[in-house]
Protein backbone atom coordinates (compact mmCIF):
# COMPACT_ATOMS: atom_id res chain seq x y z
CA UNK A 1 0.00 0.00 0.00
CA UNK A 2 2.83 2.42 0.83
CA UNK A 3 4.48 1.75 -2.53
CA UNK A 4 1.20 2.59 -4.27
CA UNK A 5 1.01 5.89 -2.41
CA UNK A 6 4.60 6.70 -3.40
CA UNK A 7 3.92 5.91 -7.06
CA UNK A 8 0.77 8.03 -7.06
CA UNK A 9 2.70 10.87 -5.45
CA UNK A 10 5.44 10.64 -8.05
CA UNK A 11 2.85 10.70 -10.83
CA UNK A 12 1.40 13.87 -9.36
CA UNK A 13 4.86 15.41 -9.15
CA UNK A 14 5.83 14.49 -12.71
CA UNK A 15 2.47 15.65 -14.15
CA UNK A 16 2.20 18.92 -12.32
CA UNK A 17 -0.05 21.80 -13.30
CA UNK A 18 -0.95 24.94 -11.41
CA UNK A 19 -3.61 27.50 -12.30
CA UNK A 20 -3.94 30.67 -10.21
CA UNK A 21 -5.64 34.04 -10.56
CA UNK A 22 -5.14 37.34 -8.76
CA UNK A 23 -5.78 41.06 -9.14
CA UNK A 24 -2.73 43.20 -9.80
CA UNK A 25 -2.70 46.72 -8.42
CA UNK A 26 -1.63 49.65 -10.62
CA UNK A 27 2.18 49.92 -10.72
CA UNK A 28 2.25 46.64 -8.79
CA UNK A 29 4.84 43.87 -8.96
CA UNK A 30 3.82 40.24 -8.45
CA UNK A 31 6.29 37.32 -8.54
CA UNK A 32 5.88 33.58 -8.03
CA UNK A 33 8.84 31.36 -7.12
CA UNK A 34 9.27 27.60 -7.33
CA UNK A 35 12.09 25.08 -7.14
CA UNK A 36 12.27 22.80 -10.19
CA UNK A 37 14.60 19.92 -11.03
CA UNK A 38 16.96 20.05 -14.00
CA UNK A 39 16.05 19.01 -17.55
CA UNK A 40 12.33 19.62 -17.00
CA UNK A 41 10.02 21.18 -19.60
CA UNK A 42 7.97 24.06 -18.22
CA UNK A 43 5.17 25.65 -20.21
CA UNK A 44 2.40 28.01 -19.32
CA UNK A 45 -0.34 30.34 -20.37
CA UNK A 46 -1.29 33.72 -18.97
CA UNK A 47 -3.94 36.32 -19.64
CA UNK A 48 -4.18 39.90 -18.41
CA UNK A 49 -7.48 41.77 -18.38
CA UNK A 50 -7.81 44.95 -20.42
CA UNK A 51 -7.09 48.29 -18.78
CA UNK A 52 -6.85 51.22 -21.18
CA UNK A 53 -3.52 53.02 -21.08
CA UNK A 54 -1.88 50.55 -18.67
CA UNK A 55 0.90 48.15 -19.56
CA UNK A 56 2.01 44.84 -18.04
CA UNK A 57 5.39 43.19 -18.56
CA UNK A 58 6.04 39.47 -18.13
CA UNK A 59 9.44 37.93 -17.32
CA UNK A 60 10.72 34.56 -16.11
CA UNK A 61 14.20 34.28 -14.57
CA UNK A 62 16.34 31.83 -12.63
CA UNK A 63 18.19 32.48 -9.37
CA UNK A 64 21.16 33.91 -11.31
CA UNK A 65 18.99 36.47 -13.10
CA UNK A 66 19.08 34.77 -16.50
CA UNK A 67 15.96 35.58 -18.52
CA UNK A 68 14.19 32.42 -19.72
CA UNK A 69 11.02 34.00 -21.10
CA UNK A 70 10.02 37.62 -21.49
CA UNK A 71 7.28 39.75 -23.00
CA UNK A 72 7.11 43.51 -22.69
CA UNK A 73 3.68 45.12 -22.91
CA UNK A 74 1.74 41.86 -23.10
CA UNK A 75 -1.36 41.79 -25.29
CA UNK A 76 -4.23 42.32 -22.87
CA UNK A 77 -7.44 40.34 -23.12
CA UNK A 78 -5.83 37.49 -25.06
CA UNK A 79 -4.10 34.29 -24.00
CA UNK A 80 -0.30 34.28 -24.26
CA UNK A 81 2.03 31.29 -23.96
CA UNK A 82 5.59 30.67 -22.83
CA UNK A 83 7.89 27.67 -22.38
CA UNK A 84 11.45 26.83 -21.37
CA UNK A 85 13.55 23.85 -20.31
CA UNK A 86 15.45 23.94 -17.02
CA UNK A 87 19.15 23.11 -17.18
CA UNK A 88 19.84 22.46 -13.50
CA UNK A 89 17.97 22.29 -10.22
CA UNK A 90 17.19 25.88 -9.37
CA UNK A 91 14.61 28.35 -8.10
CA UNK A 92 12.65 29.96 -10.92
CA UNK A 93 10.63 33.15 -10.72
CA UNK A 94 7.67 34.30 -12.82
CA UNK A 95 6.94 38.02 -12.54
CA UNK A 96 4.24 40.39 -13.78
CA UNK A 97 4.96 44.13 -13.60
CA UNK A 98 2.28 46.79 -14.03
CA UNK A 99 3.02 50.22 -15.51
CA UNK A 100 0.59 53.14 -15.32
CA UNK A 101 1.27 56.40 -17.23
CA UNK A 102 2.08 59.44 -15.10
CA UNK A 103 -0.86 61.40 -16.54
CA UNK A 104 -3.31 58.74 -15.29
CA UNK A 105 -4.89 59.76 -11.99
CA UNK A 106 -6.42 56.46 -10.98
CA UNK A 107 -5.20 53.13 -12.33
CA UNK A 108 -7.32 50.02 -12.51
CA UNK A 109 -6.76 46.63 -10.93
CA UNK A 110 -6.11 44.03 -13.60
CA UNK A 111 -7.05 40.38 -13.38
CA UNK A 112 -4.13 38.05 -14.13
CA UNK A 113 -4.69 34.38 -14.91
CA UNK A 114 -1.65 32.08 -14.91
CA UNK A 115 -1.58 28.39 -15.76
CA UNK A 116 1.78 26.63 -15.38
CA UNK A 117 2.56 23.04 -16.37
CA UNK A 118 5.76 21.09 -16.00
CA UNK A 119 7.07 17.64 -16.72
CA UNK A 120 4.91 15.23 -18.67
CA UNK A 121 1.88 17.51 -18.42
CA UNK A 122 3.75 20.25 -20.31
CA UNK A 123 4.37 18.08 -23.39
CA UNK A 124 1.96 18.22 -26.31
CA UNK A 125 1.56 14.58 -27.25
CA UNK A 126 -1.10 15.43 -29.80
CA UNK A 127 1.45 17.49 -31.71
CA UNK A 128 4.07 14.74 -31.33
CA UNK A 129 1.60 12.18 -32.67
CA UNK A 130 0.68 14.34 -35.65
CA UNK A 131 4.33 15.07 -36.48
CA UNK A 132 5.35 11.40 -36.26
CA UNK A 133 2.04 10.15 -37.71
CA UNK A 134 1.34 7.96 -34.71
CA UNK A 135 -1.91 6.27 -33.88
CA UNK A 136 -3.78 7.31 -30.71
CA UNK A 137 -2.72 4.12 -28.91
CA UNK A 138 0.90 4.77 -29.89
CA UNK A 139 0.65 8.33 -28.58
CA UNK A 140 -0.69 7.01 -25.27
CA UNK A 141 2.10 4.44 -25.09
CA UNK A 142 4.62 7.20 -25.71
CA UNK A 143 3.11 9.22 -22.86
CA UNK A 144 3.23 6.23 -20.52
CA UNK A 145 6.82 5.54 -21.53
CA UNK A 146 7.83 9.12 -20.69
CA UNK A 147 5.88 8.91 -17.44
CA UNK A 148 7.65 5.69 -16.47
CA UNK A 149 11.03 7.22 -17.25
CA UNK A 150 10.18 10.28 -15.16
CA UNK A 151 9.17 8.07 -12.22
CA UNK A 152 12.44 6.12 -12.48
CA UNK A 153 14.38 9.38 -12.52
CA UNK A 154 12.48 10.58 -9.44
CA UNK A 155 13.27 7.33 -7.63
CA UNK A 156 16.95 7.73 -8.55
CA UNK A 157 16.88 11.36 -7.36
CA UNK A 158 15.24 10.33 -4.09
CA UNK A 159 17.85 7.62 -3.58
CA UNK A 160 20.66 10.09 -4.25
CA UNK A 161 19.16 12.58 -1.79
CA UNK A 162 18.83 9.82 0.80
CA UNK A 163 22.49 8.87 0.34
CA UNK A 164 23.56 12.51 0.68
CA UNK A 165 21.49 12.91 3.84
CA UNK A 166 22.96 9.70 5.26
CA UNK A 167 26.50 10.85 4.52
CA UNK A 168 25.74 14.19 6.13
CA UNK A 169 24.34 12.49 9.24
CA UNK A 170 27.35 10.20 9.52
CA UNK A 171 29.77 13.11 9.13
CA UNK A 172 27.82 15.11 11.73
CA UNK A 173 27.86 12.19 14.17
CA UNK A 174 31.62 11.80 13.75
CA UNK A 175 32.21 15.50 14.36
CA UNK A 176 29.98 15.44 17.45
CA UNK A 177 31.88 12.40 18.78
CA UNK A 178 35.28 14.03 18.25
CA UNK A 179 34.04 17.28 19.79
CA UNK A 180 32.73 15.38 22.83
CA UNK A 181 36.07 13.61 23.30
CA UNK A 182 37.91 16.90 22.93
CA UNK A 183 35.58 18.56 25.47
CA UNK A 184 36.13 15.74 27.97
CA UNK A 185 39.91 15.99 27.58
CA UNK A 186 39.73 19.74 28.10
CA UNK A 187 37.63 19.29 31.24
CA UNK A 188 40.02 16.61 32.53
CA UNK A 189 43.03 18.86 31.94
CA UNK A 190 41.26 21.78 33.59
CA UNK A 191 40.31 19.66 36.62
CA UNK A 192 43.89 18.38 36.97
CA UNK A 193 45.30 21.90 36.73
CA UNK A 194 42.78 23.11 39.29
CA UNK A 195 43.79 20.36 41.78
CA UNK A 196 47.50 21.23 41.48
CA UNK A 197 46.76 24.95 41.69
CA UNK A 198 44.67 24.53 44.86
CA UNK A 199 47.36 22.35 46.44
CA UNK A 200 50.00 24.99 45.78
CA UNK A 201 47.68 27.70 47.09
CA UNK A 202 46.84 25.88 50.33
CA UNK A 203 50.51 25.02 50.87
CA UNK A 204 51.45 28.65 50.35
CA UNK A 205 48.85 29.61 52.97
CA UNK A 206 50.21 26.78 55.18
CA UNK A 207 46.76 25.23 55.40
CA UNK A 208 48.07 21.83 54.37
CA UNK A 209 51.49 20.20 54.54
TrEMBL record:
Key word DNA-binding present: no
UniProt GO cellular component terms: membrane
SMART domains per the UniProt record, alphabetical: EMP24_GP25L
Pfam families named in the record: EMP24_GP25L
Highest taxon of source: Eukaryota
Membrane-spanning residues: 176-198
Subcellular location: Membrane
Signal peptide stretch: 1-17
Family annotation (InterPro entries): Emp24-like (IPR015720), GOLD_dom (IPR009038)
Segments forming domain GOLD: 29-118
Keyword Signal: yes
Alphabetized UniProt keyword annotations: Developmental protein, Membrane, Signal, Transmembrane, Transmembrane helix
Membrane disposition: Single-pass type I membrane protein
Family membership noted in the UniProt record: Belongs to the EMP24/GP25L family.
Name of this chain's protein: Transmembrane emp24 domain-containing protein bai
Organism of this sequence: Ceratosolen solmsi marchali
Gene this protein is translated from: LOC105360910
Amino acid sequence: MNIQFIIVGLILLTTYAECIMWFMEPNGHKCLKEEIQGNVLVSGEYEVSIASGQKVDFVTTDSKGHILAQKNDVQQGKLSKFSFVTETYDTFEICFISHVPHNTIHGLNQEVLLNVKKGIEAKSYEGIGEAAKLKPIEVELKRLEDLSEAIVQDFARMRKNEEEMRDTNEATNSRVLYFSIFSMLCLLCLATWQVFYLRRFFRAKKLIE
